[in-house]
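Q: Predict the bound structure with tetrahydrodeoxyuridine.
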Amino acid sequence: MYDKKIEFSYQEFNSIDELSKEDAWLLNEARDVTQQAYAPYSKFYVGAVAKLANGEIVAGSNQENASFPAGLCAERVLLASVSSIYPKIAIDTIAISYQGNGSVSNHPISPCGVCRQSMQEFEQRTNHPIRLILGGMEGKIFIIPKSSMLLPLAFTSGELL
Ligand code: THU
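A: Predicted complex:
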């Protein structure tokens, strides 16, 4: 028997002012893109903006539906858009922000489990880590160096291909 341990390091910043110019720009884009969300049911508006390895910028926001399970998170809208517009191009960084209805957006939110699974496979198939910048409209910001760090022991395509 062996005890095993998985850990990862990430960075915490007190505010957007501590980020590099490029990262601050991307997070501000994600903040703006929350306004494109279609979230009449949850009234929780998420924006995700990717900087691709070829320098292009692609945005996504959550898109809900009266049939609730048909709704999509901002992150998966973004991944599908990137893959459709720029097939096979890797993603360097995704910034994610949000606005709640009445609640204060002053701390980072983390991608849901399904989106972690989707980002893991995107990383794997492009053979490139996706860096995450997570922050609300104000307050602390997390930078996660590689999205798959958020999904240890993932189920991967290796089991099926
Ligand atoms: N949502 C996202 O877009 N990304 C996340 O990482 C978490 C949740 C959306 C899904 C739904 O439209 C709303 O936020 C409330 O769950």
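A: The chain is about 25% helix and 20% strand.
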